[in-house]
DNA sequence: TTGTACGCGTTATCAC
DNA sequence: GTGATAACGCGTACAA
C-alpha cells in the first residue's frame, strides 16, 4: 500500500492538514515544520493520490483520444508523431492521454460520451476533421470540451488547429518554378475531400501567379501503385511535365518509381515528410505536427472566456528540399 | 454536472444503495424495483463515476505505456499496430491505456514509479525489451506489475510475450529454398542485439538443416541506404547469392532498390510486414502484433497465482509471400 | 500557524 | 429485499 497524507503526518509529528498545506500552500507553514514534513515525504516516497485528487476536484486531468486502426496502405503517417506530441504537451500541464478504440466515427462519439459521463476524461482531441464530420456537432451538443485538428467549414464553436495545406503546395510549386521547371503537374486525392482540394489549390494558384499554364491535374487513391500509374500517364504525354507536386509522400514515392521504371526524369515533391521521404531523398512539405499537438492541448486546457471566440490557429508548413526536386 | 446515484435514487423513489445493488448485485433487487431504477438510469443517462469507483476499489483500471519519439529513419513500424492492439485489448476488461513520455529508459522508470505511486495506473506494458534492459529489475524491485514485449534473458519473474524471431527467418529461408534458391544471404542489424542474432540464427540453422552452405552474413544499421549498399556488396561477388533474408522491411526495401539499380535480380524477404512491404510487393515475416497486445494485457490483468510462474508466451510469426521472393 | 469537520461518488457491511 | 453507516484519500472553509 502507498503512503497517504496521514502516514506522512504521523511520521512528521504533525496533523494531516499541515501536510496538505505544505504541498498546496507552503507559505502558510513555518519553515522548520515544512522541512520536517518535506523530509518525511521524501523518506516515505509519498505522492498525492491522483484518483482522490480527481474526485475532490472533479477533474480527471485526462485527455481522451481515439486511436484508429493502422491504415494498411499508407507508407508513412504523421499519426504517430501527433500522438507523441500530444502526450508530451500534456506533460507540462500534468495531464495524460487516455486512449480508446472505436470502429467508426459514431462509435468514437459514443465512446467519448461514455468516457465523459463517467468522469474519466476532461475533454478530447479530435484527429482528421473533414467537411460533414459528425463529431464536432455531437460533442458540442453534449457540452463536451474538445480541440480539433482540421476543419469542417463550420468551426466557429470550438477550438481548432490546422495546417495551411495550400501554403504547403504553394511553397512546393514555387520552389520547382525557381529551379527552372515550367510544366508542373499535380497528383492528388480524388476530388471532393477538402484537404485534397486545398493542396490542389495551392499548386494551381501559384502557377497562375507565376504566369505559367497549369499542367495536368491527376487524381487517384493514396497508394504507391496509383502514383506509379499516374507517372506513366503523365509521361505518355507528347510534351510531358518535368515536375509533379504530390498530395502525399505515398503518391510521390509511386511517381518516383513510375518515372524510374520508364527511365525518365521527373522532379517530385511530396507531402508530410514521413520517414519514407527521407529514405527516398524526396523533397517534401513538412507539417509542424509537434506545434499542432501543443496548440491543441493548450486550447483544450485553457479555454477562451465564454464571451470570446475559441482559440484557432492555422500553422504554416515547411518545405524540406532534398534531391528529388532538382532542375529539369 | 453529471447525475449521481443519488439523483437516480431520487428519480426512482428508492435509496442510494438500492441503485448500487441494481448495478452490482441485481439478483438482490425485486424485479419491479429494478425496472423502475433501470428506467431512471436510462432517462437520466447515468453512468457510474469511474474516479469514485477507482478510489473505492483502489484500482484505476488504467494501464501505463511510455510512447517513444518516432524513429526518423525506419520506413515502417509495428509500434502503431501495437498501440492500437493494446487499447483494443483493454476494452474487453474495461481498462484504458494511459500514455506518457520520457527521454530515455531511466526516465521511463521514474515516470512509471511516479504514476504507480500516485495510483494513476494499475500496471505497465513495456515495449522492446533487450538484454541488460534496466526496466524489469527496477519495476520488480518496486513491486509494480507489468508485462513485457520481448525478453532480457532473465525473464522468470514477470509475464512476457515474445515473437519467435528465429522461426520467422527460418520460414523465410525455407520458402526461398523451396522455390529453388541455393545461395541465400542474410542482411541484419549490427551484431550483439539479441533480436538481430535470433533472426540470423533462424536463417543459419535452416540452411544447415537443408545441407546448404550459408551465404554471406552482412550487417549494418537499419536504413534504406544500408540495404542498397549491402545489395551492391553482395552482387559484386563473382558468384553472387540469388536471394537474401533481411532482418527488417527497411533493409529489404534497400536491398530491392540496390539490386534494381544494378539491373540485377535478387529475391528478398523482409521482416514485420509493414505497409511498405505491401506497397513494394515484398514478401515479409509478419509478427502477430494484435495477439501480442492481447496476451500482454491478459497477463497483466489476470496475474498468475503467487506460487505459480508468471504467464509467458512465445508466438509464431507468419510468412506473407509476395512477388519479391520468386524463383531464381 | 494548526487542527476539526465535511464532502467529492461509489460500494461493502450489516442491521432491519 | 431494503436502507442506514462507514470508508477509500484528498482539499478546504472554518474555528481555535
UniProtKB/TrEMBL annotation, chains A, B:
It comes from the Bacteria. GO terms for molecular function: DNA binding. Keywords: DNA-binding, Transcription, Transcription regulation. The keyword rRNA-binding does not apply. The keyword DNA-binding applies. InterPro entries: HTH_LacI, LacI/GalR-like_sensor, Lambda_DNA-bd_dom_sf, Peripla_BP_I. Residues 3-57 form the HTH lacI-type domain. This is LacI family DNA-binding transcriptional regulator.
